[in-house]
TrEMBL record:
Pfam families named in the record: Serpin
Highest taxon listed in the record's lineage: Bacteria
PANTHER family cross-referenced by the UniProt entry: GH10112P-RELATED, SERINE PROTEASE INHIBITOR, SERPIN
Protein name from the UniProt record: Serpin family protein
Family per similarity comment: Belongs to the serpin family.
Ranges for domain Serpin: 9-362
Length: 363
């Protein structure tokens, strides 16, 4: 778990916008896409991805697979949908060994899309599949123009999670309370409950854990001081220690209802974690295919909605891949017009000849 926390915070610090802005992203979705990419790559390309993830794909699967198997608890049964899809042009040869390795990933499949013949249709197919998995919370992961005419494949993760609290907040207790936002105080709908909850306080943070169905917890991390400063300093050791020290306490909790979204292109944040070769013509995708590929862009979107009954969230990550081979032009057939010649000027479709000229001395 500590490796996953370390990756989560490292990429968060590289990815998140200024501390006075709302933002949301899914470490589960991004690490899934990176894990698929690590499985598809070799050499230095793979080494850089594994270094960013802080662990091998097999270790990552130990975290991701059980997390994709929620058990129903008290209250409404949890809903979790995970899709890990390799979208490929039908002429892209996919190694059988990669098809087999892909089966280890939750909700995995290999599907065809007409990337080279109809990039817009390929975009629509991927977006429709992500929208279906995310229950329409992410209706358009790939914006218009995001599938380049040389795009030939994409690795896509999509995630949807809806769970109810083990004990719901009473909607009758929700009222308007002041919230001290960076741009000034404002009144926001705030939920209230007094009950036994996981609690810890250390290193300038308080943590309150709200249990939900299926073994899911929502942990509220409240800094003693300014969030922007505290968030910058938070590392995996401190966060892991805080989570491990949660103990049951009687808590009178006031928590705002909220819905937060986030979207980002991940090339630069991943580069900050040392992932460079994946985006270059030197990328090694030999475990996936014999054709030379590189990742052109990594797109991510996420949304999280929390209210009295529970939480609902969705995320999706797409790695778009292009061919990197330089198309070799055939050697030109040399024609030197260095002696008298004729020129015929015509209408191509009807055959009408507008001019027929003889040129014997162009000087």
């Amino acid at each position: 778990m500590r490796h996953h926390l370390d990756f989560t915070l490292a990429l968060h610090h590289a990815l998140a916008p200024a501390g006075d802005q709302d933002f949301c992203w899914s470490p589960y979705s991004v690490s899934s896409a990176l894990g698929l990419a690590a499985t598809a790559t070799g050499g230095k390309t793979r080494e850089q991805i594994v270094s960013a993830l802080r662990e091998e794909p097999a270790g990552l699967l130990d975290v991701l697979v059980p997390s994709a198997e929620l058990a129903a608890g008290t209250g409404e049964a949890p809903v979790l949908a995970v899709a890990n899809t390799l979208w490929a042009h039908e002429d892209l040869p996919v190694e059988e060994s990669y098809r087999l390795a892909l089966k280890d990933w939750p909700g995995s499949s290999v599907r065809n899309a007409p990337f080279l013949a109809d990039p817009e249709r390929a975009r629509q197919l991927i977006n429709a599949d992500v929208a279906e998995t995310t229950r329409e919370l992410i209706p358009e992961l790939l914006p218009e123009g995001s599938v380049h005419p040389r795009t030939i494949a994409a690795l896509v993760n999509a995630l949807y999670l809806k769970v109810s609290w083990r004990e719901a907040f009473d909607t009758a207790d929700t009222d308007e309370q002041p919230f001290h936002a960076p741009r000034g105080q404002r009144a926001v709908p705030t939920m209230h409950a007094t009950r036994n909850l996981g609690y810890a306080a250390a290193g300038g943070w308080q943590a309150v854990s709200l249990p939900a169905a299926g073994g899911v917890d929502a942990v509220v991390l409240l800094p003693d001081g300014d969030l922007a400063d505290a968030e910058r300093e938070l590392d995996a050791a401190a966060l892991g220690g805080l989570l491990e020290s949660l103990e049951q306490r009687r808590i009178a909790l006031s928590l705002p209802k909220f819905k937060v979204t986030g979207g980002a292109e991940l090339t630069d944040p991943l580069a900050a974690l040392g992932v460079h070769e994946l985006f270059t013509p030197g990328a090694d995708f030999s475990p996936l295919t014999s054709m030379p590929l590189r990742v052109s862009t990594v797109v991510h979107e996420s949304v999280l909605d929390v209210d009295e009954s529970g939480l609902e969230g969705a995320a999706a990550t797409a790695m778009m891949m292009r061919l990197t081979a330089v198309v070799r032009e055939p050697e030109p057939l040399r024609v030197e017009v260095d002696r008298p010649f004729l020129v015929l000027v015509r209408h191509r479709s009807t055959g009408a000849v507008y001019f027929l000229s003889r040129v014997t001395d162009p000087s």
